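Homework help board

Subject: predicted structure for assignment chain

Our instructor gave us this sequence and asked us to write out the predicted structure in token form, then describe one feature. I got the tokens but I'm not sure how to describe them. Can anyone check?
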Amino acid sequence: MPNELGYFTLPVKDLARAKRFYGALFGWEIEEGGHVANTKFPLGLSASGPAELPNAYFRVDDIDAAAARVGQLGGTVRARHVYPSGPNAVCADPDGTVFSLWQPAPGFE
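My token output:
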């Protein structure tokens, strides 16, 4: 089965203000770290913005193998992080388009 989008974040400047705004706008219940608790599709807010575009995380079974494959195919891994939701890798394709890989931690599947 092909990989699919696994998580989606909106980079925001002020997390507290964004929680109030998006909570009121969409009816989201937003947890302390920015994870939206009451949607079917996993998404959240990230205090890494503002940004013109959201951040797409593609779900993978093995973050290390997927990150290695990015390099084998001519892309780059720009950063690696581990969050309570699981490890991720910020990557770029050979032309510079940025995307992220995410291996869900138990309970985030």
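Reply (TA_rk): Your tokens look well-formed. For the description, you could write something like this. The chain has two helices and six strands. That's the kind of observation they're looking for.
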